[in-house]
Structure formats: C-alpha cells, structure tokens
C-alpha cells in the first residue's frame, strides 16, 4: 500500500461515515464495462462542489490492490452488479491529485519532474523495496511502470484528480501547459499497461488549434455528460428522499439548488449545497464557501462582446443560445461572448440545455452570486433599464 501506488480506501471510508452519503457507486458498473477496451479513457469535468474527488476516491477504493474493500461496498448499489466481485481490488492503481502536487511548488514548470520523482519513489517503496535506495532521478517512470506490468501481468488503473488545475492556476503559461499534456499523453496513450484512465477536472481537455493532445479520452462535461448524467449531482428523487429524511421543504431546496438539466436527467442539484442546507437546516448561499463572486466579476469587468447586456437579461429570466463547440477549454482564450458563457457553464454558474443550446442562471444561490458580481462591476445603474426591458420580453422572474 502506497500514497500514490495502490493507495488505501481511507478517504472513501470517510465519505461513507459522513452523516449524509448518497450512493453513486453505480458509476463503477460503467467503468467495469469499459475496462481494457477502446473506451477505457474517461475525462469527467464538473464544477467545484460536485463530488469529483469523492467519486475518484470511491473508484480507487474499489480497484486498488492496496486495500480490502469488500465490507465497504457490500451495502452499496454496485454490489448487486454481476461484475462487482470480478474486479474488486484486483488492479494496480495509480492515484494522482494534481492539485496536491501543485500546492507544494513555487513554479508550475517543476510539476512533471516533482510528480515523477514522488511517484517513482512511492512505486519503488511499495512494490520493489529492494530498489528503494537507488536515486529516483535515474529511473524512468514509464519504464518502471512497464516493468511492473511485465513482471506481474496486472494492468493499471490510473485515476488523475483535478487534472486541469494547471490551466486554472497558471492560465497564461502555454509552454508548461503543453509540456504537461505531452507528459500525460506519453504516460497513457497506447500503453498496454493501462486498463482504465479516469480523469476529473473542471475544464474539458485543452485544445491546441482544432486538435486535442489527449484525443483518446471520451469527455463527459457540463455541456454533454452523456450516460453519466445521473452522477453529475443529486437527482430529483435523491433530493426528495433527503428532504423527507431530514425534515426540509423540498420546494425550497429546489428553488435554491436545482436548475442544472441534461438530456436524460432533467433536474440536477448542486450536491454540496444541498448537504450543507440539510445539515444546517437552513437554505442559504453556500457557494461562496468554496467559490467567490470575484470569479464572475473578473469576466464581467471585461464586458466582452456586450456581455453586460446578456448577463442582465439572464438575471431577468431570459435564456441565451450559445455555440459551445468553439470554446478552447481554457480560461483566457475568448473569441466571442459564447466562449465566456461556455466557461461559466463549466464553472457551474450557468445551466446548459443540450437540446436547445441555451444557457440560463440555474437557481437562487447562483443568482445571488451574479447580483453581487454585477454590483462589483459597476453595472447596477445600467442594469435597471436593461433588466426591466428584458424581464418584460422574457417573462422572467427576479
């Protein structure tokens, strides 16, 4: 059992012991289905507070040979699946939280070297202790992983959490970003030791020109979550059950935290905010605990391509049709207002209707964030006129 190589199931056990836990384990039925297939590369992008790391911890606990998770999963939905026992704790797992690696660095250019050094050391300590006294700087990571696979015949499940944080924290450093993408491609693409590569982040995979450096991945995002839509947030039935159990008014919870909608799942709720409201027995704005209005205000102050008028129309209840396909999947490349609005969808500030290609402000919690950002941008005077006109045209509600 290591820190990165075949980690324990401790993090997921904390989730299970929490006062409120919603069983999303059926996502493992999907990952079991695609193991060792052409579809084994999965990138799931969701906003902060939407359970990405918890899901990554669960997938690691299920596959990792560094723990025994049978008791942990026996009462979860996935235990009923035919594939449950076949794959349980039967794979070598490499779990990397890129945010944690970046937090220890002063310069993001050091990320790949720092990551490889720590991962090599961890693999050697946990898998081949006899080699642990050798300099980790002289050992090639990919050759080491390939050697372990050749020796054991056990494929590897890669779980890369917060994979995109380098694009969010060092937005303009294109050279480091490209080197990072090349590192991931070299580590994962066309490698026979890969059984599954599961990445989570906020942004979809970065494009250079019209191409993606990681084009082997199938992406599940806030603009198209595909058949993983039910795992993005809490569903209507899940929230109704939670409200009944905790004595909260479902309609009030819905007004505050509902509003995300996908092709197959029409009502999706912000899970972290729902949990906070249930635990505190109070509906309030919990978004600002992990995200502040400054993230919105930054883009509002640009007023790119008449963004001000569009935002105020959205606040009045209007919807706006956008083209998400040109978005470069970063936080600085904006060629049209649609690019900024698409970014706000991925950040969770806007809901997106796949059928109509329209965005809207999803709920009261996010509306409060928009109002604060509008005031900070100095739009409040112009907003009065635009808001009144838009409200009349759209029939929206304040």
**What's the helix count?**
18
Termini Cα gap? 54 Å
Globular, elongated, flat, extended or rod-shaped: what is the shape? globular
Mean pLDDT: 89
The percentage helix is 40-55%
What's the Cα radius of gyration?
Answer: 22 Å
Strand content: 5-15%
Number of strands: 12
Instruction: Tell me the number of structural domains.
Output: 3
Main β-sheet, spatial strand arrangement: 2-3-4-1-7
The oligomeric state is: single chain
Topology pattern, helix = H, strand = E: HHEHHHEHHHEHHEEEEEHHEHHHEHEEHH
CATH fold name of the largest domain? Rossmann fold
Supply the helix-strand structural class. alpha/beta
List the uncertain runs: 129-136
Q: What is the CATH C level class of the largest domain, in words?
A: Alpha Beta
Largest sheet: 5 strands, parallel
- Provide the CATH architecture of the largest domain: 3-Layer(aba) Sandwich
Can you walk me through this structure?
- By secondary structure, the protein is of the alpha/beta class.
- The protein has three domains: 10-220, 3-Layer(aba) Sandwich (Rossmann fold), CATH 3.40.50; 232-284, no CATH class; 295-394.
- 44% of the residues lie in helices and 11% in strands.
- It contains 18 helices and twelve strands.
- It has helices at residues 10-17, 27-34, 52-63, 70-73, 84-87, 98-103, 111-127, 141-152, 165-169, 174-188, 236-246, 250-257, 271-280, 294-302, 307-315, 337-346, 364-376, 380-394, and strands spanning 41-45, 92-97, 156-161, 194-201, 207-208, 211-212, 218-220, 234-235, 268-269, 320-321, 351-353, 358-360.
- The chain has a five-stranded parallel beta sheet with strand order 2-3-4-1-7.
- α14 (294-302) crosses α17 (364-376) and α15 (307-315) runs antiparallel to α17 (364-376).
- The radius of gyration is 22 Å and the shape is globular.
- The model is unreliable at 129-136 (pLDDT under 50).
